[in-house]
């Protein structure tokens, strides 16, 4: 056991060399693996929880690599078992790896607002985002010390949210004692609204306690705070309180500070005190690199000309690039095609690549934005599932389709949702119309989603 632990890094680099793994594959899959223990000639290896979605992929692909390598190196027969981080009670024991492990449990992690899916490891760096990526990494390595505040801006779907979560995840992994809090400006606004509405001092105190005792505060999509005076004021005071004691602040927005027209001057000068970085649209090479990353993660193998076709035609937005890739893969799976032809890919993507009227707001666009906003899939929304977490997005979909698409009927909306008649849609529409008037939080939510659809 001790020998294997001592030689753990050597085992990994041997695998890299013996099986000619690419650097990115090695860094993504092998390097993060840690040794749990060796018992009865079974070597248990931990797959980090942020790769839980790739658990099967990693275990299937690398099991024999480890088995052969370890058996050969130690001249003894070993079996290999993979376990997911967090699914084992003993994984913190005697861990002595170079990457300090987070002592965060699930509940503590939930409080950070972070999403493990996003990390620096799965962020593809290109000329369009190199500055933003390195500034983010530096911020993650030395929070509060180098760039404060860090302000990241760029158009939709270019990786701002991904970088913010990467910063947060990196910090709590390497520095589990630090308190990290990620919120969208919508969540922040709703919490302010909530505590004002409840009207008691205790809830305001609780709010301040929550936001002013963190080491790192990240507020995503700050542009949605514009025009909400009490939220702005609260945010400004929070900002100052944290900034005054060298706590790290990270802000994202769809535009540079100077263009946040109705935002108080005071903010702009605060933002200018730190570092402002932008993310622009990815160039062709970066789009190809991103597609190849998706191939690796999904363990798929599309031909080069298909990848090139996607990269040549979908230019402005990584989220769309990801959407196009997923659409092709889903189509291939559905029709059980192993080798997609370029023709069938062209056909599958024709709506994305040659949209009839590019500026028109379609129900598909509304559906995608709402799904993205709530972190559910478009299929969840159009399904018949009655889980609470799908009902609100579905009703907002009914409401916004009716409001934003000229001439669409309730029956047409019902049809998109797979419903035979339109009474549910009518009900959903009325429900949200009333909520928007009576409930500031819902009004804010709908407002933010509407702006996202229009952006
Ligand atoms: P934004 O917050 O700027 O609107 P996101 O961070 O939500 O954009 O990114 C949209 C999608 O594109 C996410 O799924 C994200 O993981 C992916 N993405 C964006 N940039 C990159 C990148 N450089 N490498 C890998 N994935 C990326
Ligand atoms: Mg975002």
Annotate the secondary structure layout.
Blueprint: H1 2-6, H2 8-18, H3 23-30, E1 34-39, E2 42-47, H4 55-74, E3 79-84, H5 106-112, H6 130-141, E4 150-153, H7 160-174, E5 180-184, H8 185-198, H9 201-212, E6 216-220, H10 229-244, E7 248-253, H11 265-272, E8 275-278, H12 284-298, H13 304-313, H14 318-334, H15 342-348, H16 350-353, H17 363-374, H18 378-382, H19 388-404, H20 410-416, H21 423-438, H22 440-454
Parallel strand pairs: 2-3, 4-7, 4-8, 5-6, 6-7
Antiparallel strand pairs: 1-2
Helix pairs in contact: 2-4, 6-7, 8-9, 8-10, 8-22, 12-13, 12-14, 17-19, 19-21, 20-21, 21-22
Outline the structure in words.
This protein is an alpha/beta fold and 455 residues long. The chain has 22 helices and eight strands. The chain has helices at residues 2-6, 8-18, 23-30, 55-74, 106-112, 130-141, 160-174, 185-198, 201-212, 229-244, 265-272, 284-298, 304-313, 318-334, 342-348, 350-353, 363-374, 378-382, 388-404, 410-416, 423-438, 440-454; strands at 34-39, 42-47, 79-84, 150-153, 180-184, 216-220, 248-253, 275-278. It is globular. The structure holds adenosine-5'-diphosphate and magnesium ion (MG). The site of magnesium ion has 4 residues, from helix 7.
């Amino acid at each position: 056991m001790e020998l294997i632990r001592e030689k753990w890094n050597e085992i990994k680099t041997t695998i890299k060399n013996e099986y000619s793994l690419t650097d990115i594959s090695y860094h993504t899959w092998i390097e993060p693996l840690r040794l749990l223990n060796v018992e009865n000639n079974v070597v248990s290896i931990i797959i980090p929880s942020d790769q839980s979605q790739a658990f099967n992929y990693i275990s299937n692909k690398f099991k024999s690599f480890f088995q052969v390598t370890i058996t050969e190196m130690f001249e003894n027969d070993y079996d290999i078992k993979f376990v997911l981080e967090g699914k084992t009670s003993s994984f913190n024991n005697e861990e002595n790896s170079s990457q300090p492990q987070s002592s965060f449990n699930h509940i503590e992690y939930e409080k950070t607002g972070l999403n493990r899916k996003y990390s620096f490891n799965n962020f593809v760096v290109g000329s369009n985002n190199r500055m933003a990526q390195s500034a983010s990494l530096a911020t993650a390595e030395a929070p509060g010390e180098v760039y404060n505040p860090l302000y990241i801006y760029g158009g939709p779907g270019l990786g701002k949210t991904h970088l913010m979560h990467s910063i947060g995840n990196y910090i709590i992994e390497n520095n589990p004692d630090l308190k990290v809090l990620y919120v969208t400006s919508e969540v922040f606004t709703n919490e302010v609204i909530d505590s004002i509405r409840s009207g008691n001092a205790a809830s305001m105190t609780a709010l301040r306690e929550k936001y002013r005792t963190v080491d790192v505060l990240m507020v995503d999509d700050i542009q949605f705070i514009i025009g909400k005076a009490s939220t702005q004021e609260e945010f400004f005071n929070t900002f100052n309180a944290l900034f005054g004691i060298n706590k790290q602040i990270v802000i994202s927005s769809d535009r540079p500070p100077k263009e946040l027209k109705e935002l108080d001057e005071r903010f702009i000068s605060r933002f200018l005190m730190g570092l402002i970085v932008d993310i622009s649209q990815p160039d062709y090479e970066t789009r190809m690199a991103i597609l190849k990353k998706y191939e690796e993660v999904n363990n798929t193998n599309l031909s080069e000309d298909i990848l090139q076709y996607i990269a040549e035609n979908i230019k402005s937005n990584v989220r769309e690039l990801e959407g196009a890739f997923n659409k092709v893969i889903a189509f291939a799976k559905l029709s059980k095609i192993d080798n997609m032809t370029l023709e069938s890919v062209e056909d599958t993507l024709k709506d994305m690549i040659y949209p009839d009227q590019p500026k028109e707001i379609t129900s598909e666009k509304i559906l995608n934005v709402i799904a993205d906003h709530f972190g559910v899939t478009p299929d969840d929304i159009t399904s018949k599932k009655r889980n609470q977490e799908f009902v609100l997005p579905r009703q907002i979909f009914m409401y916004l389709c009716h409001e934003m698409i000229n001439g669409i009927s309730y029956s047409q909306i019902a049809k998109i949702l797979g419903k035979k008649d339109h009474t549910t849609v009518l009900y959903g529409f009325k429900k949200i119309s009333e909520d928007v008037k009576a409930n500031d939080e819902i009004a804010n939510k709908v407002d933010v989603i509407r702006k996202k659809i229009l952006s």
